[in-house]
Design brief:
By secondary structure, the chain is of the alpha/beta class. It folds into 2 domains: 185 residues, Rossmann fold (3-Layer(aba) Sandwich); 66 residues, no CATH class. It has 10 helices and 12 strands. A 6-stranded mixed sheet has the order 6-7-8-3-11-12, sandwiched between helices. Strands 2-1-4-5 form a 4-stranded antiparallel sheet, with helices on one face. A hairpin with a 2-residue loop joins β4 and β5. α7 runs parallel beside α8. The chain is globular and about 50 Å long. The two termini are 32 Å apart.
Length: 263
């Protein structure tokens, strides 16, 4: 689904990413961790084509986006949803208008269809009752959930998360993490999760979601399915990948930088 091939990126003569290479298969979750300034968020911007690398290739579904113009990138971005750290909602728009923004801009759906789809997306994040509220009326956690609903507009195949649990209390953080697990396990969405929050990352790497006979979503760590093997960590150190592997390998790794980060 996504592949980086020997990508270098610099800002003002300072190299942020050095020969970064990795692959993300369809339905896989890649968790990118590392210290501030290690290049985590830069990777998300490169996937979206908001910035371009100095060298190397970035492929989305086999298509080299580093060679695409801005108009061509529009079709690529339609397959990608983005969840920002603070929700990044438009303050002057209602929740309805924020979640349906993409549909209103494209102008290909009737208002009744947009209303139905917005309600479905808000229902997925548990906020259907907030459809008429303004962002100023929402808590921080609610803004993040609305941000996830907006990112899902148009049924993207890839969702990028930039520190979605930062600054949240434990209960709200758990709600956000459960939404991410639901998208992975019940919708088959490919995910890239950039975070400082190793606890949230550990939950995503060790729990899975199923639907019981009564249609309720259940979360469990027991008898984890093979799909949890498709969750891998990347740890960046000074713009380079110093570790790539699953959660257990991360916990067992003896590389000094990895040990300091984990401990």
């Amino acid at each position: 689904m996504i592949e980086f091939r020997a990508v270098d990126k610099s800002f003002n003569d300072e190299t942020v990413l050095r020969q970064v290479s990795f692959r993300i298969r369809p339905g896989e979750t890649k968790i990118i961790v590392g210290a501030s300034g290690s290049g985590k968020s830069t990777i998300l911007k490169l996937i979206l084509g908001l910035i371009r690398p100095e060298s190397g290739q970035i492929l989305i579904e086999g298509r080299d986006i580093t060679a695409l113009g801005e108009e061509e990138m529009v079709s690529v971005r339609r397959q990608i949803g983005m969840v920002f750290q603070e929700g990044a909602l438009f303050d002057s728009l209602s929740v309805r208008e924020n979640v349906g923004y993409r549909f209103f801009e494209e102008g290909t759906m009737e208002e009744a269809e947009i209303e139905q789809e917005v309600l479905r997306l808000l229902g997925f994040v548990g906020l259907a009752e907030a459809i008429d509220k303004m962002p100023a009326e929402l808590s921080g956690g609610m803004k993040r959930r609305v941000g996830i609903a907006r990112a899902l507009a148009g049924s993207p195949r890839v969702v990028l998360y930039d520190e979605p649990t930062a600054g949240l209390d434990p209960i709200t953080k758990r709600t956000i993490v459960e939404l991410m697990i639901k998208l992975r396990d019940l919708e088959g969405v490919t995910s890239v999760f950039v975070t400082h929050d190793l606890q949230a990352a550990t939950t995503i790497a060790s729990e899975f979601a199923t639907v019981d006979g009564e249609g309720r979503v259940r979360f469990s760590r027991e008898k984890a399915p093979r799909r949890l093997l498709n969750i891998n960590f990347i740890l960046l150190e000074n713009g380079r990948i110093c570790f790539e592997g699953n959660h257990q390998q991360l916990m067992d790794c003896e590389i000094p930088y990895v040990r300091r980060f984990v401990d």
